[in-house]
Amino acid sequence: MSNRKRKKLVDDVLQDVMIPKLWTLRRISGRYRYLLPVAVMKRYQCVVVGGEGSILTVAITKPMDTRIFNAIGVLTGCTIFPVLVEPVRMRLLIRRIERLEYAYYASMNSLAFYYALQQRSMLSFLIDCHER
Question: Which residues, in sequence order, are CB contacts of 72 under 8 Å at separation 6+?
Fold first, then answer.
């Protein structure tokens, strides 16, 4: 084995030891679900799972990708404490978050029609009152 491969193997092992692994992660509290946009979660394969003060616990899938820590730190203004999650579990979690957001905004869109009718009827009422 070459020195380069050996060093990479040692770095991988050390990185796995240094970042704790989260084995069970099924749901994210609503308090943390909206801290990051879904586009950021999908791009970096990460989700905020908890926090305390100015420290956020962020589940990640790639321990060697330090861009994640910088990007999330800049977006949130918090210090990042990473935990490892299996990529399959992360994809399922992000998909669940997408479904929740879609359901939320779909319900808002169905009410938009009624809201427009309500505005129109209020405007008509005010115009009728003003003409009298």
Answer: 36, 40, 44, 46, 48, 56, 58, 78, 80
> Cβ distance 39 to 47 under 8 Å?
no
Dihedral, 11, 51, 94, 41 alpha carbons, nearest 10: -70
Q: What is the pLDDT of residues 5-62, one digit of tens each?
A: 655 554 555 455 578 887 777 788 888 888 888 888 888 888 999 888 889 999 998 8
Do 94 and 41 touch, CB atoms closer than 8 A?
yes
d(CA 47, CA 6): 31
User: Which domains does the chain show, CATH number per domain?
Assistant: 20-131 (3.30.300.160)
Could you identify the residue written with the tokens 């990479």?
A: 8
Q: How many CA atoms lie within 13 A of 106 on its CB side?
A: 6
In this structure, the strands spanning 55-60 and 46-52 are: antiparallel
* Cα–Cα distance measured from residue 79 to residue 69, given in angstroms and rounded to the nearest whole number: 8
Q: What is the pLDDT of residues 48-107, one digit of tens each?
A: 998 888 899 999 988 877 777 887 888 888 888 999 999 999 899 999 888 887 776 666
